[in-house]
Amino acid sequence: MKERKISFNENMKKRFKDNVYEIIRKTSMTQKKFAKEIGISENTLKSYLVNWSIDNIKYDTVMKICELGKVCPEELFGEQMNQNDLEMSELLREVSKLPDEEKNLVNGVMKQVLNYAKCKNSMNDTKSKK
Asked: CA 10, 43, 22: angle at the middle one, nearest 5?
């Protein structure tokens, strides 16, 4: 089966680089160890990070990076993640492993928190317009 080729724009390449650096930092690995963990050479990793040469990156490599960083591919190539984003992503993955009843409880709590945040932001917007 022929592997699909993905076209990466410059923003995606930059975000990939920034997010991989953040994952390496978070996991406290050296670049050499990180490269070994995802099944590529250190030189290949450096070419991804320094030259943004990810046009031929393999799906398996992307998935291994995502697994190590506890992120999905959309997050890896999307907006740069800060420590809170990475931790939230990790928490959501753990919640997904819970039994349905407990997932529903967490979902309800999250909806209440989001409603609170929306109300608070709305009140702040109203105050700033006055």
From this structure: 55
